[in-house]
Amino acid sequence: MNAQPPRPAFAGWLSETNDITARFLAAGGVPGLINLAGGLPAPETYPGEAVAALAAEAARESAETLAYGPIHGLPALRDAVAARFSTPEMALGRENVLITTAGMQGLSLVGQVLIEPGQAVACQSPAYLGALDAWRPRRPAWRPIFPERNGFDAEAALSGAQFGYVVPNFSNPMGRLVGLERRLELAEAAEATGTWLVEDDPYGALYYDSEPLPRILSLSGALRPGRYRGPVVYLGTFSKEIAPGLRIGWAIAAPEMIEALAAAKQGADMCTSPLTQKIALRALETGLPEAIRPGLLSLYAKRRDALAAAMAAHLAGLFDWEVPVGGMFLWATAKDPAFDTDRLFEAGLEAGVCVTPGRVFDPLGEDRRSIRLNFTLNDEAKLEEGVRRLTKAARAM
Amino acid sequence: MNAQPPRPAFAGWLSETNDITARFLAAGGVPGLINLAGGLPAPETYPGEAVAALAAEAARESAETLAYGPIHGLPALRDAVAARFSTPEMALGRENVLITTAGMQGLSLVGQVLIEPGQAVACQSPAYLGALDAWRPRRPAWRPIFPERNGFDAEAALSGAQFGYVVPNFSNPMGRLVGLERRLELAEAAEATGTWLVEDDPYGALYYDSEPLPRILSLSGALRPGRYRGPVVYLGTFSKEIAPGLRIGWAIAAPEMIEALAAAKQGADMCTSPLTQKIALRALETGLPEAIRPGLLSLYAKRRDALAAAMAAHLAGLFDWEVPVGGMFLWATAKDPAFDTDRLFEAGLEAGVCVTPGRVFDPLGEDRRSIRLNFTLNDEAKLEEGVRRLTKAARAM
After folding, report:
1. Quick check: A62 and B48 CB within 8 A?
2. Distance, CA of A323 to CA of A321 (rounded, Å)
């Protein structure tokens, strides 16, 4: 036969996507490379034996767990999530909860229901790479917002946008907290402008040095009594509290938003596996996240301290950073404004260490001065050695 | 506080979506209602004990199964799917396979990578409701095609479209086979025009009366030797061969298409649960689908016969149909062109039976004359009683 005729073009967004996640994953397979780039939990924290028992029990309830599940999720799991996130000031019911195929699907569904091409998304910047990936196919106009900065005007930030996007607990990539006063301003600005406010909270359980601050969802709910009808769309996941392999997350929002997200979920994957949902439900009922948490927090706090110590010993002349009080990441910015962290990423790979260049978190793709370092995956010795390799690579540039 | 300000509008496609799936699911909860509407397997066929053992074993491999998995799927499962669908004339490798969160996600990802608003999709009509749901957010222009009809011109059907969509094995909703000659014409037309051809095959294992016909994928692969690089995008699932609750499916295609689909999957749910992937892999390795199949085929063939007999006894004066030789559905068209199956759907609900009106499968939303009846979920007595109720409702119209 002759040469094949040309195929129809792929959708335009594909030419704008980044290959950084694929490169991280490929880097993970290089022998001896120290991977500080991903956002991975420590695999030794995964409760394999506990999940094995729950999984076997769940699979035996096969008429429910091996069947198609309801689009919105198992009713009992929706109720359990509603109960877990209700506060004295805010009542949540099943109608406020959609179960998602982990946190990433929550982001994707938000994009499906709220973005038409060219519409504004007020996005905390630098922003979670996965959120940018999830929304790029919908072609939004990015409006970067900076809720950690002094002088931030929440109403101006949200006004006229389809939605605002914030990660108030240890934002990925910066690892910073949005303070209580700013959270309240955001809740009130969403109420005043009508704009939806997506509160993405994968790291909310990972406070190492203090008690958790109230969620923006809770502050928003306290503004009006009764069942939640407000503008916050709260996205959660078990990926960091139990294990990412379950692929179980949830959206909490006003019922009209839950119904819209469910319509998008129907066309995305019909339903989340009832088998893994039932495992997550039994895990909640038996207190598995609470049983794991002390060990998780102590392990991660030690690793955070080890990374910060290694940075202070080797990189203090080149970079500035704040030691994060929670989450999984440390964000460092080069003192020299002309420093190029895209080049450092490449030089690091050659030196046997992988970090994430700041550019990939910039909706406008411009930041060349920052890097993100993960401290949860590797033990203290590897963190120290990773920083040594990075320092060597940086000094050779 | 004052009344809440208006929220930003939802994306436009939401106002065009149908609520029929949600209504089926709600109808499932009505006591005594006989549900002939859905596309559900018989729950007594789900291998709960076998999956329980595989699930416990898989969960204990927690460093792999409870972690994030590769975006493309577990390498061993991709290899197993490649081996299962290779033929003497067509070699598939890991690079030809993407694991999806069941068949619906395969459809959704195809839409993400191939549809820009207004582009043509050549869609077998009437079409699977879920495919229409999956693609509606991308705003395609529907081009209905009729590959079962005499005089079908495959090149004209595909030419200039982004992709063609066919369900050659027992198409949902019509339950018809696309014959061998027509399959070859479609494979050759895709090759000649360059247009992608999506072969959706959830029912390929459900042949009751004969040996399976070759897949269009296999026919396409045989046109050129070597690793598959052709235009067919084959979508499969374990939902009907093992159990839908696993949410495991796959796309088989040219490597460039697999990479595009993987970029979309990254932003959709990052990865499919490695836990349920590992269960599916062990199920394949231990021959679970083959062990289940004889019982499944014999059960479903008996039910198909029972439905056909009840229809012949009660509805022959009102409807025409063909007895399907596989799949899960019987498609019936009213003899009277003025008969309104939207009204029959409502009247059926009142009489205690739920069927699917033809309109929801028509990309243009016009068919008011047909109904789809499922025969896999209910036993013979219920199928007979369901048809009696439907007949009563139809005669009272």
Report:
1. yes
2. 7
User: What is the pTM for the complete model shown?
Assistant: 0.96
A267 with B133: Cβ contact below 8 A: yes
Q: Do A112 and B11 count as a contact with CB atoms less than 8 A apart?
A: yes
Q: How far apart are CA B3 and CA A397, in angstroms?
A: 58
CB-CB neighbors (< 8 A) of B56 in chain A: 52-53, 55-56
Residue A1, pLDDT > 60, answer no
CB A181 within 8 A of CB A189: no
Q: B48: which 2 tokens?
A: 């709960």
- Specify whether the CB–CB gap between B127 and B361 falls below 8 A: yes
Going by C-beta distance under 8 Å and a sequence separation of 6 or more, which residues neighbour residue A372? A37, A172, A173, A329, A330, A331, A355, A356, A358, A361
- Within 8 A of A244 by CB-CB distance, chain B residues are 66-68
| Across A274-283, average pLDDT | 98
Q: Give the CATH number of the domain where residue B303 resides.
A: 3.90.1150.10
Q: Which one-letter amino acid corresponds to residue A113?
A: V
Cα A92 to Cα B130: distance, rounded to the nearest angstrom: 31
Given A286, A320, A350, the domain boundary residue is A286
- How far is residue B25's CA from residue A13's CA, in Å, rounded to a whole number? 35
CATH code for the domain of B120: 3.40.640.10
Domain hosting residue A205, numbered range: 63-286
Q: Report the distance separating Cα B103 and Cα B236, nearest Å.
A: 6
Whether residue A226 is found in the same domain as residue A187: yes
Residue A346 lies in a domain: yes
Q: What is the pLDDT of residue B378?
A: 97
**CA atoms of B240 and A38, how far apart (whole Å):** 36
The count of domains in chain A is 2
B208 lies in the same domain as B297:
no
Percent of chain A whose pLDDT exceeds 70: 96
Residues A272 and A305 in one domain: no
Task: Give which of A1, A51, A235, A282 to mutate to test B binding, by max B Cβ within 10 Å.
Answer: A51
User: A63 pLDDT band (50/70/90 cuts)?
Assistant: very high
Domain edge (last residue) among A236, A261, A286: A286
Query: B284-313 b/e with 16+ CB inside 10 Å = b?
Result: beeebbeebeeebbebbbebbebbbebbee
Residue found by looking up tokens 């499968």 in the block: B361
Question: What angle, rounded to 10 degrees, do the helices at B255-268 and A20-27 form?
Answer: 100
| Shared domain check, B131 and B74 | yes
Residue A279: inside a domain, yes or no? yes
Binary contact (B68, A245; C-beta < 8 A): yes
Give the three-state DSSP class for A374.
strand
Chain B partners within 8 Å of A260 (Cβ) = 10, 14
The per-residue pLDDT for range A154-167, each reduced to its tens digit, is: 999 999 999 999 99
| B114: nearest CB among A10, A46, A47 | A10
What distance in Å separates the CA atoms of residue A6 and residue A2, rounded to the nearest whole number?
12
What's the confidence (pLDDT) of residue B24?
64
For residues A131 and A238, membership in a common domain is answered with: yes
Q: Nearest-CA residue of chain A relative to B265?
A: A134
Tokens describing residue B117: 């608003």
Answer yes or no: do A151 and A268 share one domain: yes
> Residue A284: which residues within 8 A CB-CB, separation 6 or more?
A77, A80, A84
Same structural domain, B200 and B151 = yes
State the DSSP string of B169-236. Answer: SS-TTT-PPPPHHHHHHHHHHHHHH--EEEEE-TTTT-BSSSPPPPPHHHHHHHTS-SB--SSEEEEE
In a domain, A126, yes or no: yes
pLDDT score at A17: 65
For residue B91, tell me if it sits in a domain. yes
- pLDDT tens per residue across span B185-207: 999 999 999 999 999 999 999 99
Q: A83 and A28 in one domain?
A: no
